[in-house]
Amino acid sequence: MDKDVGGLQVLRDGVWHTVPNSPHILLINIADYMEIMSNGIFKSPVHRAVTNAEKERISVAMFHGLDPEKDIEPAADLLLNEEQPARYKKLKAKEYMAGFYEHFCRGTRFIDSVKI
Predict the structure, then answer these.
(1) Would you tell me which of 6, 11, 14, 108 could form a disulfide with 46, CB atoms 3.0–4.6 Å apart?
(2) What's the structural domain count of the chain?
């Protein structure tokens, strides 16, 4: 993150909150795959970048995709008993990406539709 110029915001309880700047850190957004695989322990944040009219900022976004034929589901080790059942449906990575883009165009979150 740039120490002088902010711009990252996260949505919580319907309100956008600015993420504080800290010099020399690497910020990792874990995204929806990790929310599903962690069975909801880690949440995928709704976020946005905002511009600054007075200062420049450089952001680098990197994405990692899964093999389209791989299953996405909660990790078996996290499903310990009846009190901790799966909270997300099992689906192929390609099904998730198709649903993600369809919902993104509508301004909704596909991850909400795969919750059990």
Answers:
(1) 11
(2) 1
